[in-house]
Amino acid sequence: MVDPLHYSERWRVRNVELDSNGHVNNSVYLAWAEEIATRHAEAAGYGRAWSQARGGGWVIHKTEVTYHRPAVYNDVVEVAVDVDLIRGARGIRSTRIIRAVDGELLAELWTEWAWVRLSDGRPMRVPRELAELATRGSSEAAAARPR
User: Fold this and answer.
1) Is residue 53 packed enough to be buried (19+ CB in 10 Å), middle (13-18) or exposed (0-12)?
2) Three-state SS for 10?
3) CB atoms closer than 10 angstroms to residue 113
4) Are 86 and 79 in contact (CB under 8 A)?
5) What are the residue boundaries of the structural domains of the chain, listed by start?
6) Is pLDDT at 36 greater than 50 in this prediction?
7) What confidence tens digit (pLDDT) does each residue in 7-34 have?
8) Global confidence as pTM
C-alpha cells in the first residue's frame, strides 16, 4: 500500500525541459509538482476515478517556488511530495526536488489546492475519508503559510 501522505519518484531530465541557458525551465518544476501529486493520488487510490465518483476534484489555487540550484540535461531528479494539510475544501502539498546522485536540493514548492465540485467548479468540502487520512500528518507547517 502506498503511503497516502508521502510519495516520491525519480526521473531523468529531458532535453525538451531545458531553457536557453541549458537549465530546466522554471515552468517544468511546476509541471513536476503537479505530476507527482497526480501520480501519488493514483497510486494511493484517490485519483481521478475516485474523485469523479465523489463529484469533485483538485485544482491548484496557489503555488510558491524556491529555486536553489538548476537541474540540467540527463540529471536524475527525485521528486517527493508530502500532504501537509487537508481541511474543508483546502489541501496543502509540499514538494522537494533533489538531484539523486548527490542529494543536492534543487527546488522546493508549496502548493495550495482547492477541492471543487465538478458540476460547477465551486469549492466544496473534501470527502471525509480523504480528510481523515491527513489527520495522521502534521499540519503545523501548512498552518503557518499565508492563505
Assistant:
1) exposed
2) strand
3) 23
4) no
5) 6-143
6) yes
7) 999 999 999 999 999 999 999 999 999 9
8) 0.88
- Measured between alpha carbons, how far is 2 from 99 in angstroms, rounded to an integer? 23
The predicted pLDDT at position 97 comes to 98
In what order do the strands lie in the sheet containing 90-99? 6-12, 76-87, 90-99, 105-117, 56-67
Of 46, 65, 66, 67, the C-alpha closest to 57 is 46
Angle at CA 22, nearest 5°, toward 21 and 24?
105
Q: What is the pLDDT of residues 50-82, one digit of tens each?
A: 999 999 999 999 999 999 999 999 999 999 999
**Cα distance between residue 139 and residue 143, in whole Å:** 6
Report which secondary-structure segment, H or E, holds 132: helix 128-134
As a whole number of angstroms, the distance between CA 106 and CA 113 comes to 23
CATH architecture of 6-143: Roll (3.10)
Cβ atoms within 10 Å of 41's Cβ, excluding its own: 22
Question: Residue 76 in contact with residue 11, Cβ under 8 Å?
Answer: yes
Which of 63, 73, 139, 44 is closest to 107 using CA atoms? 63
